[in-house]
Amino acid sequence: MFDNGRIPWGHMHSNLLQIELERGVPTLVLWLTFLFIYGRTLWRSLGGGANLQWIDRGVLLGAFGGLGGFFTSGLVHYNWGDSEVVMVFFMIIGVALATHRLSQGSPSLGTTQAAAS
Questions:
Q1: 116 domain residue, yes or no
Q2: What's the helix, strand, coil split of the chain in %, to 5?
Q3: CA within 13 Å, CB half, 42
Q4: Distance CA 10, CA 83 (A)
């Protein structure tokens, strides 16, 4: 059926199943923990965001929707097989976390503690 191993195996049509079968249960738990912490960070940023500007709120809301969409579609589709989708998802994570950090009043990455004081 697989031409003595020369035809590559396919993939499961679920991110959760693919991660579990390919990398194991501990990796699946870590991935779900990462997504939970990221989602909780977005939720808390939006919930206590009286000081958020409209653009920051829009970025965080869009990222939260993107997280929901990526996870939901990943239940029945292997998103990791589409590198474009994963790259955009990781870029959105980076932009959302940078927005969260800046909205909290944290110093930027380029400044030192002495310069920030």
A1: no
A2: 70, 0, 30
A3: 22
A4: 16
